[in-house]
Amino acid sequence: MPLVVPGVTTNDPAVQKTEEWMNKLCGKTLADHTSETTFCKSDLPKQTRIIEPGSMVTKDFNPDRLNVHVGEDGKVSHVVHG
After folding, report:
1. pLDDT at 11
2. Which InterPro entries match (predicted)?
3. Residues 22, 23, 29, 30, CA torsion sign
4. pLDDT digits (tens, 9 = 90+) for 4-35
């Protein structure tokens, strides 16, 4: 039986999808190719927006859109759907 900890483990497919992208992208830079430290932009979902520090974004919610937050150093800090 799998360990289920409220707030840590979930069976919600939307949360699992976000966690999957977080594991793929966190700490990497986005580029036109894939390597150990980069992730290819063309491999991102069609509905993706890359949010850099200071970027203005709309507040409309789209559960299928992947928001990739990039830090000052150019590395992905976190991702959310919405």
Report:
1. 74
2. Prot_inh_I78 (IPR021719)
3. negative
4. 566 566 678 888 899 999 999 999 999 999 88
* CB crowding 45-76: b at 16 or more within 10 Å, else e: eeebeebeeeeeeeeeeeeeebbbbbeeeeeb
Q: What does 55-81 look like in DSSP terms, one character per residue?
A: --------TTPEEEEE-TTSBEEEEEE
Q: Provide CB contacts within 8 A for 64, sequence distance 6+.
A: 45, 47, 81
Beta pairing, strands 66-70 & 76-81 = antiparallel
Contacts of 29 (CB under 8 A, 6+ apart): 37, 38, 39, 74, 75, 76
DSSP 30: E
Q: What is the pTM of this model?
A: 0.82
